[in-house]
């Protein structure tokens, strides 16, 4: 059992329908002016304006930065930071998907720390000053960024996805409202849902797992696997959306404290090189990586099977059968939600093969593969990438 001395979580978590409406009350005492960080879609949907209204009702002024794109970059961080300083904002409100939240976390911490955000990637440099308080309001059930000490920012110069994991990145407050996800389209529900399930599974299989993260990961895996297809097929089902939202949040807390593993280590370079959304690239790799890890992950995968597939208990499966059932269930979910493989996504084979050496190096450099039950070498990572190119989810 790994030793642990603390479980890092936001100071305040408000979870449930209409949690968003608590923004003004939760912001009390944080400062007289907030910067709202979001994207053009959230602005068009009126959520940025609603944030401003809720803050105004609490006598708090606000400015906004809505330039975040589908993947957060160092340019977004620099622009948000400039806006924050220009407007003399004292705290930050982030509303949107994981890209908005990750951008806001980076802005919040860089206001009081010098240098370039990439200087802090991979533990090369530690944040010396505290961040501005951050209220995180997710609109997807996926990254769990609202409760993690992690941000992933893409370098516009190198296309590298820079992972930064330090306690200063943890939001002060998370407002987790499933009502914000009911209009989420099926494709986004699929990508974010598989991402969340991957967080739960990898946190449980991680070499850094501990009893507290185990409890969180198992609970998240149970709720996510049981409700994902319902949310995908019936987006207005609030009960399913609520289970997905809380499951994603709990999975985020699990991996923030136990780390992710090989799926995420291999996924980030795919996103950086071929601009595949994070959740989709995770899904493309998920089952194949578990098959690779099976020899060392068998008992833990069996425990995940008992949590995710309780209806099989009466059949009294062996550990090997439980583990196989987990992998089969992940394949079933991916197929049902029309997750493509790398070839079906449109990545040209020769370009993919040319990129493999760099992608393997970047995967190892991230550190995540070292948390995997079976730790691959560079050659094994390259072979896994090749296998995933034409992977069959049947």
From TrEMBL:
The keyword NAD applies. One of its GO terms (molecular function) is metal ion binding. Keywords: NAD, Oxidoreductase. It holds the Pfam family ADH_Fe_C. InterPro entries: ADH_Fe/GldA, ADH_Fe_C, ADH_Fe_CS, Alcohol_dehydrogenase_Fe. It comes from the Bacteria. Residues 189-388 form the Fe-containing alcohol dehydrogenase-like C-terminal domain. This is Iron-containing alcohol dehydrogenase. Residues 10-178 form the Alcohol dehydrogenase iron-type/glycerol dehydrogenase GldA domain. Belongs to the iron-containing alcohol dehydrogenase family.
């Amino acid at each position: 059992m790994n030793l642990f001395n603390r479980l890092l979580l936001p100071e305040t978590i408000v979870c449930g329908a209409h949690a968003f409406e608590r923004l003004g009350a939760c912001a009390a005492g944080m400062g007289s002016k907030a910067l709202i960080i979001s994207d053009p879609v959230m602005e068009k949907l009126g959520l940025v304006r609603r944030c401003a209204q809720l803050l105004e009702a609490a006598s708090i002024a606000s400015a906004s930065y809505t330039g975040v794109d589908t993947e957060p970059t160092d340019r977004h961080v620099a622009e948000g930071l400039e806006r924050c300083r220009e407007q003399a904002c004292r705290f930050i409100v982030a509303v949107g998907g994981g890209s908005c939240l990750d951008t806001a976390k980076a802005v919040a911490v860089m206001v009081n720390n010098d240098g370039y955000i990439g200087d802090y990637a991979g533990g090369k440099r530690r944040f010396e000053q505290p961040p501005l308080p951050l209220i995180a309001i997710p609109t997807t059930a996926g990254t769990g960024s609202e409760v993690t000490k992690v941000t992933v920012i893409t370098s516009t110069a190198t296309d590298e996805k820079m992972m930064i994991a330090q306690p200063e990145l943890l939001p002060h407050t998370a407002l987790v409202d499933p009502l914000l996800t009911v209009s989420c389209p099926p494709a986004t529900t699929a990508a974010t849902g598989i991402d969340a399930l991957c967080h739960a599974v990898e946190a449980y299989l991680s070499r850094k797992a501990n009893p507290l993260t185990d409890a969180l990961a198992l609970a998240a895996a149970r709720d996510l696997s049981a409700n994902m297809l319902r949310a995908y097929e019936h987006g207005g089902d609030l009960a399913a959306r609520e289970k997905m939202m809380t499951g994603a949040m709990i999975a985020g807390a699990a991996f923030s404290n136990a780390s992710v593993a090989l799926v995420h280590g291999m996924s980030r370079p795919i996103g950086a090189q071929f601009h595949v959304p994070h959740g989709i690239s995770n899904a493309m790799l998920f089952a194949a990586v578990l098959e690779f890890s099976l020899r060392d992950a068998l008992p833990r995968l069996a425990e995940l099977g008992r949590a995710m597939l309780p209806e099989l208990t009466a059949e009294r499966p062996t550990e090997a059968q439980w583990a196989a059932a987990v992998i089969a269930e992940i394949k079933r979910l991916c197929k049902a939600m029309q997750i493509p493989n790398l070839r079906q996504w449109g990545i040209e084979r020769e370009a993919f093969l040319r990129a493999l050496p760099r992608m393997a190096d970047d995967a190892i450099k991230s550190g995540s593969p070292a948390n995997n039950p079976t730790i691959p070498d560079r050659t094994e990572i390259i072979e896994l990438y090749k296998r995933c190119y034409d992977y069959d989810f049947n």
